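Final report, closing paragraph on structural work. Over the funding period we assembled a curated collection of sequence-structure pairs, and we close with a single example.
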Amino acid sequence: MTHSRNLTRRALLASLGAGSALYGLFTSMESAAQGSTAKRLLVLAHPIGSVRPSWLPVTTAGNLTLSPILAPFEPVKRNMVVLDGLDLVGDGGGGLHESGTVLIGTGSPTIAKQQGAGGSDDCAPTAPSMDQILLNKSPFLGGRPVGSLQLAADNRVEDQGISCAVLSYRSPTDYLYPELDPNKVYQQVFGNVMPGGPSPSNMAALARARARQQSVLDFSKRDLARLEQAAPASEKVKIDAFATAIRELETTFDAQANPGGSGSACQPGMAPAPFTPNVSESHGAVGQALLAIIRTAFACDLTRVASFLWAPGTSVVTFSGLFPGMETVAHHPHSHAGDRAIPELTAIDTWYSEQTSLFLQSLAQTPDGTGTLLDNTLVLYVTEVARANHSFEQLPIVVFGGPGVGIRQAGRMVQYQPRPFNDLWLAVANQFGVPMASLGSAQQWSGPLPNLFA
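Its predicted structure, as stored:
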């Protein structure tokens, strides 16, 4: 019987193809049946720091009281650790928003670009980003159908520099520019479910099907049925969860494409959803659609590494009406208005907390292994400067996760004597099975951050 099953397994895996989503799902189920829990890593960045008096929470008798800016995270506080006292240590050239973004991603020195070669404030990295280093070296993160995702809800910058709009780098010269269009990302990621993968012909067929509000799963019914036959009995529920996660995502897209309608009005050839990147009025909708793709890709174990940028450090996203009487302001230009900008900056950062919390709550509501997707995902909620005056001291950093990624006693704040931000990356690397003694230049690290992981 075992010999027969092994033959069936080998035939199934050969037919699915090593790069397909269903191949990844099956191998993930086999690992789970043997007691292995998937770990994920997400770097999630919001722009232009915070307003420290309204950001810093209070701990009284061991109880964490969230500040006005962090209050939207109350529903996920049990998975939250606030870190205070980490300084981003610059080494090299570039403007502070630009170099800060590169420093957050890579932990390594920056190089200023020459005037006329991308802008006087632009800069370049000198090393790969840490998410890519961990993807390639960690025993927990690689080997999935989609290596990693790089997404952004807006990439408009105030000048011609691009460094503050990129978080991930394969190498100092290989920039992983984030994708903004949710429809394009959907096809790239979930085209892996189709027999033959995301080939040009499959992508064209999927676009036509999605215009008719058909599911990518309609292309894979036979393979899903075969997968259910071959899956370990204890893990078959994951096939239903896989299909449900994708259909829920597609329902969200369909609702955006035809608000208030049944979808019958959609004709072949129409775009699946009118998400419009780089338009301030759709900033939240585009961000939520992209984050929903990350959640579904994590839930289906298509990838275990992602980076997401709400907007660049020199963001020109406009906001209005976040409090009574608030006029329309462009985020980065207004941040230079001094003290009179504090109400707007506080409201904008609170808005990003609200939007991010919605996503984190969706992770907390998604079963995964013996816990939830948030329990098994390490989310670094970061920003490229500490506050609008360009300071790198006391970055407002929050980490989310749970037992699956080794978080030690969530729902608290840890205050450190000033130490480099890179110490957080060193602790994360160790937690993901990639021991690192140093990162960047000598002044950019002091050792793995203590008191975060068990």
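The two ends are 42 Å apart (CA to CA). The first helix runs from residue 2 to 16. We thank the funder for supporting this effort.
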